[in-house]
Amino acid sequence: MNESVLTSKGQTTLPKPVREALGVSPGDRVRYVILPLEVRIFRVRPIGRLFGTLKYEGPPIGLSDMERAVEHGGRT
């Protein structure tokens, strides 16, 4: 189990095993999710890191096609 001390300003340092488990480094951001009786910490992934994760091999899609797909629940 890992622990850290809370300063008078309410700050703490994440222990090294916690930083490693989250895959965070200095300058990275973390998010806290407050639940009944616990708080969970998540690494924040910048939106730019998601670029290219979804592949589309078809022809370019126009705005009217996108609007039609939205109207039909994602189906054209």
Mean pLDDT, to the nearest integer, reads 89
Helix content range: 10-25%
From the alpha-carbon coordinates, what is the Rg to the nearest angstrom?
Answer: 21 Å
Unreliable stretches covering 5 or more consecutive residues:
none
Order of helices and strands: HEEH
- Main sheet strand line-up: 1-2
Q: Which band does the percent of strand residues land in?
A: 15-25%
Which class of secondary structure composition applies to the elements? alpha+beta
Distance between termini? Answer: 52 Å
What can be said about the biggest beta sheet? 2 strands, antiparallel
Counted by DSSP, the helix tally is 2
Q: Give the overall silhouette.
A: elongated
How many β strands by DSSP?
Answer: 2
Secondary-structure blueprint of this entry?
Layout: H1 16-22, E1 30-35, E2 38-43, H2 63-71
Antiparallel strand pairs: 1-2
How would you describe what is shown here?
The structure is a single chain. The protein is of the alpha+beta class and 76 residues long. It is 21% helix and 16% strand. It has 2 helices and 2 strands; from the N terminus they run αββα. Strands 1-2 form a two-stranded antiparallel ribbon. The chain is elongated, with a radius of gyration of 21 Å. 0% of the residues are buried. The mean pLDDT is 89.
Short structural description:
This protein has 76 residues and is an alpha+beta fold.
Could you list some keywords that capture this structure?
76 residues; alpha+beta; two-stranded antiparallel sheet; 2 helices; 2 strands; 21% helix
